[in-house]
Amino acid sequence: MDVYVCEDDFCSILSGIYDAGTSGRPSREQRLELKGQREPELFCRYLEVQPEKRKAESVMGTVRERISGEACRLLWTASLSGDGEKADWMYRFLVDGFRQGPKIVHMLSLPSVFQMVEYDRAVGNEAHLLTGFVRFARLPEGILAGSIGPKNDVLAIVAEHFEDRLSGENWMLWDEKRDKAAVHQANRETVLLRGIPEDIRRRIKAAGTQDPYGDLWRVFVHTISIKERENRKCQMTHLPLRFREYMTEWQKTPCPPGMDMV
Amino acid sequence: MLIQEHLTLREKLEILTDAAKYDVACTSSGADRKGKKGTMGSAVPAGICHSFSADGRCISLLKILFTNECIYDCRYCVNRRSNDVVRTSFTPEEVCTLTMEFYRRNYIEGLFLSSGILHSPDYTMELICRTLWKLRHEHHFRGYIHVKAIPGADPALIEQAGFLADRMSVNLELPTAEGLRTLAPGKTREKILLPMRQIQRGIEAGKQELIPYRRDSAFVPAGQSTQMIVGATPESDYQMLSVAEALYQSYGLKRVFYSAFVRVNDDSLLPALPGGPPLLREHRLYQADWLLRYYGFQAGELLSEDRPNFNVLLDPKCDWAVRHLEQFPVEVNRADYYTLLRVPGMGVKSARRIVEARRHAALDFPDLKRFGVVLKRAMYFITCSGRVMMPFRQDQDAIAASLAGEERRRAWEIGEGNAYRQMSLFDDFHITVPPTAEDVSGAVWGVM
Prior knowledge:
Mean pLDDT of chain B: 86
Structural class of chain B: alpha/beta
Largest sheet of chain A: 5 strands, mixed
Strand order of the largest sheet of chain B: 4-6-7-8-9-10
Low-confidence stretches of chain B: 412-419
Strand content of chain B: 5-15%
Order of helices and strands of chain A: EHEEHHHHEEHEEEHHHH
CATH architecture of the largest domain in chain B: Alpha-Beta Barrel
Distance between the termini of chain B: 81 Å
Oligomer: heterodimer
Number of domains of chain B: 2
Shape of chain B: globular
CATH superfamily of the largest domain in chain B: Aldolase class I
Shape of chain A: elongated
Helix content of chain B: 25-40%
Structural class of chain A: alpha/beta
Largest interface: A-B, 57 and 58 residues
Helix content of chain A: 40-55%
């Protein structure tokens, strides 16, 4: 078994698929892995993938030509998924895809295709949820700042939504887990940055409790609930805890008595 | 009446949110509008939930009343004239500031503005219109706006509001004219239906235009909705659902919302609800409402004059399927889309996936499971390539019992017993009558 070890990004995974596809060995004797995701096994040859733009473009070109644009889109969203097995599933999907042609995207009963559609659904769902759950807070300089910690790498999708919606504002959205940020200057294009200085991180985290409208918002969320209908379980289903730590209405503040539970 | 001057914005927000919370609709769906340079906001067709309150309801819009002063005395309403509560009003500028600042921080998807009736319907509607105009034209707000049409207001004002808002609603409140007369003395059925009809005509007129001359100013682009209170008056589920169906068909409504009655006022004409609001009943009505809107069912199929209320133990779709076993089982690899939709445990998404995937391969039960079909409900009603998933007893009672066993865990209130079988004193209650002396002698001597 040959194992191609790649980094967790689109270009690297596609380069791995390129290497596997051009090795001349049958697909059942090859596998793709993300670096650090699995324990090394015996009787495997581990090959480090050299990410190259040329390889990635070659794979995408062939997919567009021989399968379809929809397959390209599925590959892209799958690469955003937080699942450790995604590289191998993308490879399996293309092995099946080159065999079946354009109709592959409808063959949901094939495990590889179903998995790709699942990735697409999971990434799309989380991005959609975050378009609602993101909270900005006004920093003293007037910039709106927010942070997220999603399972999948959805920062770019979410930022696109806000670029359209809040085009005239200065804002930044920081993905805490991947340490990336989308920064938008009023009426300009949004840029994605990697690596945020420590002091800015700290201020983004604290901003939610200092914004005066944060307090009004907490009052609203607390008051809108009907006591006779209280249903914490239902609330939990719709708004899981992993989102709450980033949301203004759940941030711990010194608040007046009776207001401690939202 | 207590009218307080000089409240802070925070206090006003608390009072007017508290007064608005019994209106259930908080959806931001139906409008599709991209952002634009120089303005703030956009709207997406599916709507976006921004938070969930402790009662599990979605918070999508800033749901507030403009004022909680009211000239009416509706018995179920917390803002009725005769209630002794603190009264206050926002100014249009305050509503705009709150909306813009909340929106900017992505707390909300837009504004849901309702109001008590201050002085007269016209006066109130005019204030609402002025607020919306300010929001759209001075603050350049492009997000979602849901506004109430006040029954009895001048049609010109309602039209103006319609061009500023995305969705309008007039609350029907009670499904029958009779109920309305007892509980809402200031309102009549005709007065409520009039603006509803006007909005419907306006929406239809907008659709007739071949080229909308101003692309940004459609009339109520997200459609209109209404709300009915469940359990304040003795109407049956069948009546409620029939009214909802009529509203969808003849008034072109987008949504009908159901609101389990919460007893906020102590009034002799209101029912006492020792078990809390009738939440299960509301839940069943929503389930049936979905069946009407997306699954091609009709109210008459789900309920009838003889069976006017929903089964407590089974959801409306299972209930319907168990009573129509002659139409099952259906073959998953061959049945058309609408037949699949009628199978319990299958939804729009899974039915679509099945129709798409079976063109390329014959499907089996594990495939269905992956597609999201709930097999523990669907297994009684489907076959895959002629086979059932596992053997089971093919009769109504057995199927209903196994479906209910699963449903029971989810239903939080259990009412009546077995609906499909005549109850038997001897089997169900284990009553055994000891044999009399004649029976014994008859058995011995063989004489009856």
